[in-house]
Amino acid sequence: MIAEPTVTSRSSVQNENLAVDTNPPGAVRHTVGGARNENREKSVRGKRRAREGSENAKRRHTKTTNGGLGRAQNSYPKRGDVEAVTLFEVVTMGRSAMQAVVDDWIEAYIADRDSALLDLVSFFIQCSGCKGLVTAEMFQSRKGDVMSKMVEELDECSGLQYKKFLAFPWILTVTWPMDMDSGEYPLTMTGPYWRRFRSEFCEFVSVLVTQCQYSVIFDSYLMDTVISLLTELSDSGVRAFRHTCTLAAMKLLSSLIGVAVSLTVSIENSQRLGEVERAKTSGRRNSTRLERIQRKVTELQDKRVEIENMMDAIFKGVFLKRYRDVLPDIRSVCMEELAIWMKLYSPVFLTDSYLKYMGWMMHDKLPDVRLKCVLGLQGLYGDPVLLPKLDLFNSRFKDRLISMTLDKDHEVAVQTLRLLTLISQSTDDVLTAEDYKQLFQLVYSSHRPLAVTAGELLYTRLICCPAETTDLGEGTSEHHIHTQLTADRVRALLHFYQDSGLHQHMVYLVDSLWDSASAMLKDWPSLTSLLLQDASTQGLCAGEQSLVIEVLVASVRQAVEGPLLAGRSTCKRIVIAREKKTQLDDCGRLTEHFLKFLPQLLTEYSGSPESAASLLKIPQYFHPDSSSAGSQQALAGLLSEMGAVVDLHTDPAVLEAAARSYLSLCGEETAWHSLARPARDTVVQCWVDRLAKLMGDALQDGNFTADEDRTGQMLSTLKKLTAFHNAQDLSGWGLYEQVSPLLSGNIQHGGLPAEVTVEALQCVSFSVLWNLNTSGENLTTREKAVAQRSKLRTLCEKCLHCLSHDNQRVKEQAFLSLCDVLTAHNYQVHVWEPSSYGPLLYTPDPKLTKALLAFILEHVFTGPECSSHSRGSNVESSEGRLEELHRRRNLLAAYCKLIVHGVLEMSMAAEVFMYYMKYYNDFGDIIKETLSRTRQMDKIESARTLVLCLQQLFLRLKQEQDSGVACSLGVQTFSSIKELARRFSLTFGWDQTKSRESLALIHRDGIEFVFQGLVQKAERPSSPHLSYLTILSEFSSKLLRPDKKTVHSYLQRYVNEQTISNREECWLPLIQYRASLLATGTEGEDAASFVSSDSPKQPSLGDMKAPAVICSETKGRRSNRASSTSTSTSTSKEEKMPGVEPGTVFRETLPTKLISEEQYNTNEELDVDTVEVDL
């Protein structure tokens, strides 16, 4: 192929040429490697000496002449110091010289059409990236002889390829180097120079046809030659020829359509002139002029027929062969141009015989081809004149279009939905009600552009023109009409939301409609007016009122925060200044409006917890600088109403929304800070006083003696204080000291209700968390630091006691509180400055750590075992099971945080890692992320944890097998342990150098574990843990080749040659492990026969029998791992095992780090994709 031309490289390319075979008389030689054809005006005289095969490439200096293109060459502009001497170079220089070059070429063609045509032939071949030679001989042979010469051959001896084909009136022979199939040619090359080449190339073809349409295009010579050339080269086996010439042929047909359209216009104009002339009276009619017009019409019609014949030849010779080409780019070009032909020349191309290709290619497996089809159809359906010709296409391919809205490629799905929107706007009888129902559901798509497009269809088809409208009498004001129209549209939206019944997320529906229906959604006065109307005139039931409130709150959030929703992907874009200004204006308008009307809404809907919780979120979006006249008075009314609502409800959603709104209003940067904070303090102080009074009556000598009524009041007050303490720092009210006696009395005497205990634990833990968070500011003396640590220790002791509570909620809350405070304490210890007072170190005692682990094993790894093999099985998917799974995932994530933050020792994760495969579907992502984080902390300690995990599983299985009892649910089978080891090995990634130390530790500890119990029995030694080597062999593929030799030498320290040569069944694990280290074929096959199974009767680990049949999948997997190991280690023969010289053995100490410490990259793991968990 050719490189990007430069001043130096282009000159060197001009000096290259290739010799060719013996040319017959009349042949013309033409170079296409960037050099001028100095011989195009000369005929080859005499006969050249025949050569066998192909000649070697020769280099000779090309002589600069003024022949060939004549004035066209001399008029080409210059680029740098090099004159553009070929059409290819001129085209790549830009469009400014295009028309002048084409005009000069036409003049050269008129003067000497053979030489000019050879220049054009060379141009197309050179644009294909061919550095070679073109030889042209006149077509003088019989047809049979000609067809026998139409070949495309390869000469491996000379490294040249040949293609001989007929481009009437010549037989052309193209010779080029073999490396042309490397994939690099101008249409695929990168860089700014070549990115412009495609457009310039297409422009040249278009300009050529445009400038020739009144002259040489009808000479039956130029177009025949060009069409023959492009047809033959587009059928070549060389991708560069096929791609370039197919593109040229498609653009040539498009340009010919322009000529045909121009001829059609001229024919219609001439026919109208003839009709006008015939309409004249016989005395005024000019017969001569009428005959001249008729001759002109006949001449134009003949030219149009000739053009259509050219178009038909290109379509049948190129399109029909290439629209199913193996190269996706060629298929895309064909579909893109076909759509253009249908739109520009619909009388010929917009028929069912051509539309079928568009419909067929919508099933193409490449998304780009499908996208080109859909975009082309959008242009057709956008023209109302063309719609009647698409009826049959609609009925045949409508189902395919609807299914493409679920295409795996997002852009194809979006453009298909836009096409269907065009269809729905143009006609009403194509899409049925069921089709619209399916399309409307896409507003809940996770891909926002698709959801927005579906929202546009929903708005224009269903909401904008609601089926039910309210009749308004004469004389109604414009404001009332607008309000009523908004109300009707909102009702239509609510009916759709209720009828769909698939999702319960109004915020996603509002986000989908925001781009098309923002005017309706931001009409907050109309929505407020609808909610404040009387029930008799409102026409909304209680459920619909709640939905209108959800729409109102969602539109407020969308106006302030924009389209940022969890679970909905969107393209990254820069917010322009106009959008920022619109956002600020909307924020100001909603602040001014809701300061006035939100108190009325709260008063109207305070009885419904769901509606109150939604309305209480609105103050969080107020503009902080809004200080309009009367805002202070309006805010006072709002705060008063908020306090009344909070005092009325104990629903968690209401309390959380109120706490966050108070926090937003009390911010230092807000204009109403001085008014909002005292109101908040008054509310909190009232609750604290009430709680103190209730506790004083309920606690008598530590015993909880309150009746049911007082217990309910205490629980309500605790819920409110806990919710506010979660969002705001209420340490000034001493809630820890006030609530802690409840837990102390419950530990000593019991009797505290479970719900009160849960709220008390939450309140106390929030108090400790806020103290830790503000320790840098508040801990000014050592006494305060000691008091804070004492609070932390006391809370941990109380939570530890609650872990054994009878109530499940109490136990879970105690566990979560422990994890939260210990994680926060560890973080504060690491970030505080030693120069100032900070939190004193608190280390959990062993009893507490064991209790945490026991809780996880008891309450998380229970229930159905969802292994990776049951991914496609039908499992229970009820709402209750999902909530239970979510609860267990939260507990496991909290425990894993303690490990990755260093609160617990890393070895405590071994019990969690055991369940990686057993509960892969439920907790696989959390466990894998924990494994990745621990490896980032300490690679060696993480490897020790994996070793501990596998050895404990092995020992438990062996102990159960030795006892003769069948495997229980708590013990995994041998094959499960082996699969777990394989998954662990995959997490080390492709970069084996980073994992050398870890893998060395795993193999060393594994070998020592196996042979530490080696004893002499009878005449041969045996080890009870020998089967562990089968598990250990799963890590062998990750070792570098030098490390394998070192591990093998360490293995030989424990076993002699006599033992290795022993082929008894008990030694098969050793044979397999040794074969995995040596990567030998013979012993590997012998060892492969030792495979464990999950049969009901488990074989003994010390003396396992091989099954009669070996699974082919296991063989393939082992061979693949062996081949990948040999490949990855072939480039590292001279590397050494970290800390161990070749020929030595491992020691008890850790390997010395000889490689650079690099942070572990989780992206290199080979396991399946998982969801990242915030630990």
TrEMBL record:
Coiled-coil regions listed? none
Q: Where in the cell is it found?
A: Nucleus; Chromosome; Chromosome, Centromere
Q: Which domain of life is it from?
A: Eukaryota
An example molecular function term from Gene Ontology annotations:
chromatin binding
What's the source species for this entry?
Esox lucius (Northern pike)
Instruction: List UniProt keywords, sorted A-Z.
Output: Cell cycle, Cell division, Chromosome, Chromosome partition, Nucleus
Q: Do you know which InterPro entries this protein is assigned to? A: ARM-type_fold, Cohesin_Scc3/SA, HEAT_SCC3-SA, SCD, STAG
Gene Ontology biological process terms from the UniProt entry: cell division; chromosome segregation; sister chromatid cohesion
Q: Which residues form the signal peptide?
A: none
Listed SUPFAM superfamilies: ARM repeat (SSF48371)
Name the record gives this protein: Cohesin subunit SA
Assembly and interactions?
Part of the cohesin complex which is composed of a heterodimer between a SMC1 protein (SMC1A or SMC1B) and SMC3, which are attached via their hinge domain, and RAD21 which link them at their heads, and one STAG protein.
Region of interest (Disordered), ranges: 1-76, 1111-1147
Look up keyword Glycoprotein and say if it applies.
no
Assigned GO CC terms: chromatin; chromosome, centromeric region; cohesin complex; nucleus
- Chain's role: Component of cohesin complex, a complex required for the cohesion of sister chromatids after DNA replication. The cohesin complex apparently forms a large proteinaceous ring within which sister chromatids can be trapped. At anaphase, the complex is cleaved and dissociates from chromatin, allowing sister chromatids to segregate.
Family statement: Belongs to the SCC3 family.
Biased composition, class Polar residues, residue ranges: 1-17
- Every copy of the SCD domain together lies at 319-404
